[in-house]
């Protein structure tokens, strides 16, 4: 999305949900979340829901399977699709 860089990732040890929201000026330009592409050996642990007519997206991780997942956010603007960088999430067993 423009010149903004995306970074992220981390380790998850419990069930979690994260909400990602587009900045207001980005939303005003017509950008909308359309989906998320989730891959990796624990990808089945993740679900996404697009909220607020595309202004935000919720990613839920059940953390049932140890492993690494890659999450790519997909957005659209004026009929053109864009994909984010590839942050990785590592699910680890609780200690």
Uncertain runs are 1-8
Topology, number of strands: 8
Mean pLDDT: 82
The helix content is under 10%
- By DSSP (H or I, 4+ residues per run), the number of helices equals 1
Helices and strands, in order, run as EEHEEEEEE
Descriptive report:
- The structure is a single chain.
- The strands form 2 sheets. Strands 1, 3, 6, 7 and 8 form a 5-stranded mixed sheet that branches. This protein has a 3-stranded antiparallel sheet with strand order 2-5-4, with no helix packed on it.
- Mean pLDDT is 82; it is low at 1-8.
- The radius of gyration is 14 Å and the shape is elongated.
- With 95 residues, it is mainly β.
- The chain has 1 helix and 8 strands.
- Helices cover 5% and strands 53% of the residues.
Top keywords for this entry?
three-stranded antiparallel sheet; five-stranded mixed sheet; mainly beta; single chain; 95 residues
List the helices and strands and how they pair.
Blueprint: E1 9-12, E2 16-21, H1 24-28, E3 32-40, E4 46-51, E5 56-61, E6 67-77, E7 80-83, E8 88-91
């Amino acid at each position: 999305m423009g010149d903004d860089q995306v970074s992220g990732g981390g380790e998850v040890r419990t069930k979690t949900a994260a909400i990602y929201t587009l900045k207001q000026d980005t939303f005003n330009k017509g950008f909308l979340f359309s989906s998320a592409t989730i891959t990796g050996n624990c990808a089945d642990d993740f679900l996404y829901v697009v909220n607020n007519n595309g202004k935000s997206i919720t990613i839920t991780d059940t953390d049932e399977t140890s492993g690494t997942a890659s999450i790519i956010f997909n957005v659209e603007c004026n009929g053109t699709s864009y994909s984010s960088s590839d942050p990785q999430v590592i699910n680890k067993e609780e200690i």
